[in-house]
Amino acid sequence: MEINRKSPPSVGPTARTGESSSAKAPKAKALTVRDGFDTQGARPSNFVDRPTGRPTPPGASVPASAFTYGSSNVAVKPGATNKVDPSKEKPKLTGEPIIAVIDGGVDFKHTDLDDAMWTNPGEVAGDGIDNDANGIKDDVHGFNVGDGGGDPFKGDGTDHGTHVAGIIAAEDNGKGNTGIAAGKAKVLSVGGLYDGADLLTNFERSVDYLVKMKTEHGVNIRAANASFGNSYRDAASQERWTAAVQKLADADILLVAATANGNGSNMNNVPDMPANIDLPNVITVASMDRNNDKLARFSSHGDKVVDLAAVGEDVLSTVPGNQWEEMSGTSMATPTVAATAARMFAENPDLTAVQVRDLLIKTVEQDTDLKGKVITGGKLDINAAIDAAKATVEPKPQTPAVATR
Ligand SMILES: [Ca+2]
Ligand SMILES: [Ca+2]
Ligand SMILES: [Ca+2]
Ligand SMILES: [Ca+2]
Q: Where are the transmembrane segments (predicted)?
């Protein structure tokens, strides 16, 4: 079927989607490029993920009190080792692996996602009370980093965030699409990424929430999907990005990051955050074309910084209002890897983020088109990665045979 490409971008400037297309004519929810944006990054192909910066809109800053769990209050001081205090009893992590989607918020009422969302067991919905005392009222399915509230499904980029979530976990129900980790993982939505404050500040606050929920509330967060990014040339910002990703590492959370949609640009030696952060819990993803045959024309690459590629072109997934839509971009390739990681954690919950990253890398399928473009020279092999995770499971010790005589 010929897909009619729509020209208006449907995502925010720092999101890593290029274009959306739909045979179902979804309602136009294109984001407006707001005051303060540099639109020079807009290209004819509608890749608009390269703004030079995004100042906080006047009056839109989030009160510091909304982030009482924030970096100023975390137990670990900057520069100190970020290890969790061993004297504190760590909550036991159980249940399905949870993938955090840091993005525009997810439509958690979508019929294809409503059973795929993480639900905060410590929170009572809609009572205006922060029942679990984590600093956020009514954060039932995640929270909104843009306004500090408990409703992630607000603000810019909700079509993008909802699409990303569906690639991971849309239900296997005969409708729309089926997420790669359908029924095996839950999605926690950190919405509002493009609201309130700048991308870096919002990312730091997102990380603080996730780390707190995992280390203090026992929420089984295993990976965070980062279908966003930007170039940060100043050392201070680079240090902040790296410190935030280190906090994820210390909480054993994998960060799956999208490379840029730079139409073939080489990202080696580009201070692109968080994609190019060199930490062992970061895996960076480029996009293959729809046939999984070549690097997609819109994708950037870099054989020093991009680990692997995965299909990110014409991907059908959920968008708000019980709709489905095809979108393209490294934003769509990235959750494919995050979902595969979720499947691996489901196979063996004892695997660490670093181990899962290593297995994802070791099991890529080599592709001649990726030689010299990504570190591994390969593309995601979902089944091989899951099988490799399965193979790490220790066989259960045989119970001694009971004498039957
Ligand atoms: Ca459902
Ligand atoms: Ca709460
Ligand atoms: Ca509540
Ligand atoms: Ca479905």
A: none
**d(CA 283, ligand 1 centre) in Å:** 30
The one-character DSSP state at 266 is: B
Please state the length of the chain. 405
Give the tens place of pLDDT for each residue, 133-170: 999 999 999 999 999 999 999 999 999 999 999 999 99
Nearest CA-CA partner of 193 in 242, 219, 158: 158
Q: Which ligand is nearest to the CA of 149?
A: 2
Q: Which residues contact 8 (CB under 8 A, 6 or more apart)?
A: 28, 30, 46
Query: 175 C-alpha vs ligand 1 centroid, how far in Å?
Result: 10
Cα separations (Å) of 98 from 104, 168, 220, 249? Answer: 18, 10, 6, 16
Q: What pTM does this model have?
A: 0.81
Q: How far apart are the first and last CA of the chain?
A: 68
Going by their DSSP bridges, the two strands 272-273 and 308-311 should be labelled as: unpaired
Tens-digit pLDDT profile for residues 69-100: 333 333 333 344 444 455 556 677 889 999 99
Ligand 4 mean position, distance from CA 368 (Å): 33
Ligand minimally distant from the alpha carbon of residue 134 = 2
Pairing relation of β-strands 19-21 and 98-102?
unpaired
Ligand approaching nearest to the C-alpha of 116: 1
Separation of alpha carbons 210 and 218, rounded Å: 10
Contacts of 50 (CB under 8 A, 6+ apart): 13, 41, 230, 231, 260, 262
* All domains of the chain in start order, with CATH: 96-391 (3.40.50.200)
Q: How far apart are CA 17 and CA 225, in angstroms?
A: 14
Is the peptide bond prior to 274 cis by the omega test (within 30 degrees of 0)? yes
* Strand ranges across the sheet with 98-102: 142-144, 186-191, 98-102, 221-226, 254-258, 282-288, 308-311, 378-379, 365-366
Tokens of 65: 């009190």
Q: How far is CA 91 from the centre of its chain?
A: 24
State the distance from the centre of ligand 4 to the C-alpha of 324, rounded, in angstroms. Answer: 9
Beta strands 282-288 and 378-379 are unpaired
- 246: helix, coil or strand? helix
